[in-house]
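For the sake of transparency, this paper describes our internal protein records without simplification. An entry from our holdings is shown next, in its original layout:
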Amino acid sequence: MDVIIRAYVPGDRAACRALWCELTEHHREIYEDAGIGGDDPGGHFDEYLAHPHFVAAWVAELGGRIVGLTGLLRGEDGVEIEPVVVRRAQRSRGIGRRLVEHVIAEARERGERSLSIRPVARNAGAIRHFLRAGFSVVGRVELFQSLVDSDRTWRPGVTLHGQELDC
């Protein structure tokens, strides 16, 4: 079966909310924090669609089922891919790559000058995929400092300008 990448339509909402929940669950797993996304992580998909910088979204369809989601947000210096999510059972089949390639082509067609993506630092697999897709320039770094006691543990993992950072 071939994967079809097409524009998001309102009838895709339930399937895309479920994908958003899968993305949240993945972040919960890699950060070992069940609180990420709150009690209704699918509700964040609705917020995403209503975001003032929302440009467009696309889905990946396989055998009539939505198995992936991606989109574009307007950023300060161009557009940003947000999110890229593929149903867990369909990962490692090139669907995420196809979604990213589609968004890159869309951004070019729209005459955008730059395209960025912001994977969470601990998601090494996603970072490797995005590097292979041509995202090899670091444009900005976001550093955090915890201001409250938390159960979240940080791991060593990133060296930037000779500085060891946790993620």
